[in-house]
Design a protein that fits this description.
- With 324 residues, this protein is of the alpha/beta class.
- Helix content is 47%, strand content 18%.
- Strands 1, 2, 3, 4, 5, 6, 7, 8 and 9 form a nine-stranded mixed β-sheet that branches.
- Helix 1 links the parallel strand 1 and strand 2.
- Helix 10 packs across helix 13.
């Protein structure tokens, strides 16, 4: 029988934390789900951990591939999934026992394409656990959420984690959604497109997912790569939103503001050649897509393009800080 939920886990060198993640899924009060783990060329004991768990729990299906990055692993997971709903879980995180039960009940009762919950942040270094709701409580207070396209884009940008939610697989398939390969922060473009194309979004005011921080091997610890990846994802969205029929002034005003904000991320970093290439591409995207904005923002971003032309990174960062 086809399971109702596909739990999707990208795995790369997560031997230390993977057992807790898998055990939290084994203890779910809701049971009609499959677990798919894509081992993205791990060089530690992750394959053995997965195989050991699969012997005990037949719901786990293991897919192995050569190391190609988390975006590639997640795209493979989307292809392998069979369930009506998708639930991504990172290999170093874990979930509460009623996680899937709560998400599934909300999705079925309210016909939602996306169900989002709140999460706790567990610090691996000092073993503290704190609730993280500062970005989501505004949305969680309104059910259902009456989003305009610009509000949906901002909500997707606020919620740049693909984990901690249940997603209707039909939305992903129908929208031909996937992760931006070749860049980290691959969740950014996926989440924004997901929120823009969803018909019905529900936020649950419950802490059911535990996100582990303080892991040295996490890509989020690489600040230059994260800053570069965010800009790559936003640059990808500029033509992609136009192609998908979202060429609206309010959409591009938000998107261009995010591009400028992305440039500001480099003010405390030491950009290398890859960063400079992405930053220059960002400037060209602002120059091209400012014409989709209303007159005021179009004029403002036009001046930004003129003032930064040929001025190098220092000038671009300076004017990006003023253009708030």
């Amino acid at each position: 029988m086809t399971p109702q939920i596909s739990v999707l886990i990208p795995v790369y060198n997560a031997e230390k934390y993977l057992p807790q993640c898998l055990q939290s899924l084994a203890e779910q009060t809701y049971t009609d789900f499959e677990i798919i783990a894509v081992d993205d060329g791990s060089t530690d004991g992750s394959p053995e951990v997965l195989q050991s768990f699969a012997v005990r729990d037949k719901r786990l299906r293991i897919v192995r591939q050569k190391n190609a990055g988390v975006a590639s692993a997640r795209n493979r997971l989307l292809k392998e999934a069979r369930g009506k709903y998708l639930a991504f879980v990172d290999a170093d995180d874990w979930v509460k026992p009623n996680y899937l039960e709560k998400l599934y009940a909300a999705a079925e009762t309210e016909g939602a394409d996306i169900v989002r919950i709140l999460f706790e942040e567990y610090n691996e270094r000092d073993k503290s656990c704190i609730p993280c709701d500062r970005r989501y409580r505004t949305y969680a207070a309104h059910r259902p959420v009456p989003f305009t396209p610009a509000e949906r884009l901002r909500a997707g940008q606020d919620d740049t984690q693909v984990w901690g939610k249940l997603i209707a697989r039909a939305l992903v398939i129908g929208g031909q959604l996937g992760f931006c390969t070749g860049a980290v922060a691959e969740d950014v473009s996926f989440e924004i497109l997901l929120y823009l194309q969803a018909r019905h979004i529900i936020f649950l005011n419950e802490y059911l997912y535990v996100y582990r921080v303080g892991v040295d091997t996490s890509i989020t610890a690489d600040k230059p790569a994260m800053a570069r990846g965010i800009l790559q994802n936003l640059c990808f969205l500029c033509p992609e939103l136009e192609r998908r029929g979202f060429a609206l002034p309010e959409i591009y005003e938000v998107l261009l503001r995010l591009l400028v904000k992305g440039i500001r991320r480099f003010r405390r970093l030491s950009p290398d050649a890859r960063d400079l290439e992405v930053i220059e591409k960002t400037r060209k995207m602002i120059e091209k897509y400012r014409f989709y904005c209303y007159f005021g923002p179009r004029w403002k971003y036009g001046w930004f393009v003129r003032l930064t032309n040929g001025g190098g990174l220092e000038r671009m960062i300076f004017w990006s800080r003023l253009l708030r």
